[in-house]
Design a protein that fits this description.
Residues 65-380 form the CHAD domain. With 387 residues, the chain is an all-alpha fold. The protein is 66% helix and 0% strand.
Length: 387
């Protein structure tokens, strides 16, 4: 039996690596299509290699590190080791200490998955594609419980602020109200607490089932092998990492260019409230391009880490945080909207949920404004460093 199948239980679920990694490497059109999802007349990855510095990703000693296959293998091995270490801590921790190891598992799984995506032409394609898909499944499964908990806390805190109360909203007594929003806030908070706590409980059960499944053990087996033997193609050593990282940077720049940054640059522009009373999901669909930029910015950061960059541009970090807040506010607004559609709720409750939805959409707008400022400062700083 090969060590790929015998290191952990369920190892047979991971595709066996092709011992022959020859064939054309993705440095040509095939490699660009692998990174961009298909042919589309894009520039060659190396055409924008200089753009790495334009995003403020300089090496600690100055300049832009290009890296090689050994650097990629070293980075993947380090992340795989961190994954296994977090897995061990998760198994040894109690219920109270479980969130920290689970967060570490998610963090390393995202980094490995993103790196396998960016540098796919340098790796065994079938093996890396399957592992990347499974890591994305694991990261998403583990993230749901934490997301529901944070969403509930965010919404209850906003209700408390909007109601002008110092007591937790679900604990507010509905007797002797001071206004319609205060009465509705108590009932709206109780409704949100029931719905999101139920969703969190279900997500917790799903995560526990996933961590005990043969599918997860197959993922752990693949990561264990990755910690010692990165499946590079035969001719991977002849290629540098910078062109592939530059392709991610180009996609990020194109995605940001497509955003309505001019509109977002005006405070209180109410763009995030457009179609707020529509029956369709227009607000959610307008958020999609911003969510895509958030994912590309994350891929860009992981690519820079693989290149050896440790000091990421603080302006880009601020931009990433703004997009995180954007996503959280958008999802919280969607939760408030969903709760408002609950049948047979009191008018005061529906009113409070409507105010809460508008408040969170304003947070979406504020996050877009913050992202625009951080992105422009990052561009200005890189222009000064290049001059």
């Amino acid at each position: 039996m090969c060590r790929r199948c015998s290191s952990t239980r369920g190892g047979a679920g991971v595709a066996q690596r092709n011992p022959d990694r020859g064939g054309p490497l993705g440095g040509g059109s095939a490699g660009r299509e692998a990174l961009s999802g298909g042919a589309g007349g894009r520039e060659a990855p190396g055409a924008r290699a200089a753009g790495l510095e334009a995003l403020g990703a300089g090496a600690p000693g100055g300049g832009v590190p290009s890296g090689g296959a050994e650097d990629l293998a070293r980075y993947l091995r380090a992340q795989a080791t961190d994954f296994l270490r977090a897995l061990r801590r998760h198994r040894e921790s109690g219920v109270e200490d479980a969130p920290a190891p689970a967060m570490a598992l998610r963090r390393t799984a995202r980094r490995i998955s993103g790196t396998l995506h960016t540098f796919r032409p340098l790796l065994d394609a079938s093996w890396s594609d399957e592992l990347r898909t499974e890591l994305a499944w694991l990261s998403g499964t583990l993230a749901r419980e934490h997301a529901y908990a944070e969403r509930l806390e965010r919404l209850l805190t906003a209700l408390q602020r909007l109601a002008g109360s110092t007591a937790p909203v679900p604990a507010q007594a509905s007797a002797s109200p001071t206004g319609q929003l205060t009465v509705g806030a108590a009932k709206a908070g109780a409704l949100l607490d029931r719905q999101l706590t139920l969703a969190r409980t279900r997500a917790h059960s799903t995560a526990l089932q996933a961590l005990g499944s043969s599918r997860f053990h197959a993922v752990a087996d693949g990561v264990a092998v990755l910690a010692s033997d990165v499946p590079l193609r035969k001719d991977a050593s002849a290629h540098r990492l910078a062109p592939f990282a530059a392709d991610v940077e180009a996609r990020l720049t194109d995605a940001v260019r497509a955003l309505p940054l001019v509109r977002a640059g005006h405070p209180y522009n109410a763009e995030a409230l457009v179609h707020g009373l529509s029956s369709d999901t227009a607000p959610e669909s307008q958020d999609a391009p911003w969510h895509q930029v958030r994912l590309l910015l994350r891929l860009h950061r992981y690519a820079q880490e693989a290149l050896g960059v440790r000091d990421f541009d603080p302006h880009l970090v601020a931009a990433s945080h703004a997009l995180d807040r954007h996503r959280d506010a958008a999802e919280a607004a969607a939760a408030a909207s969903s709760a408002a559609r609950t049948p047979r709720i009191a008018p005061a409750t529906a009113y409070a949920l409507g105010v809460l939805h508008a408040d969170q959409r304003h947070e979406v707008e504020a996050s877009r404004f913050a992202f625009k400022g951080a992105w422009q400062r990052a561009g200005s700083a890189s222009a000064v460093s290049l001059s």
